[in-house]
Structure to design on (118 residues):
């Protein structure tokens, strides 16, 4: 019996990160993020749940997000690992005066190789 669950494009992780970075560049991203370094490598710290929550609620992303509605936090982390974007997911930083744990530290150089820029 065929599955009724919609199939995501192979590069759904990259598409989601591309949308989130576009929102950051425009100054429209409402989630917690920080530019910084992890063990000497420049990176983007993101709270993974914030990424999906923002994209689900963003009016600007509504047309693009509808293709990724079923995308989950777990898939985001697994995709980051698969594409070798993730430096660590166990980092804690202070963002806007609050401690934020379990941030994804994404390698900016690898993001750039995939054409994702901030």
């Amino acid at each position: 019996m065929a599955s009724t669950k919609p199939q995501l494009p192979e590069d759904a992780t990259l598409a989601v990160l591309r949308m989130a970075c576009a929102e950051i560049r425009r100054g429209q991203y409402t989630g917690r993020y920080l530019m910084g370094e992890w063990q000497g490598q420049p990176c983007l710290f993101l709270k993974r749940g914030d990424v999906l929550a923002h994209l689900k609620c963003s009016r600007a992303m509504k047309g693009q997000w509808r293709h990724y509605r079923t995308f989950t936090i777990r898939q985001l982390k697994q995709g980051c690992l698969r594409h070798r974007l993730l430096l660590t997911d166990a980092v804690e930083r202070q963002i806007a005066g609050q401690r934020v744990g379990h941030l994804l530290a994404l390698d900016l150089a690898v993001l750039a190789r995939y054409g994702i820029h901030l």
In short: The longest strand covers residues 86-95. The mean pLDDT is 88. Residues 12-113 form one domain. The chain has one domain: 12-113.
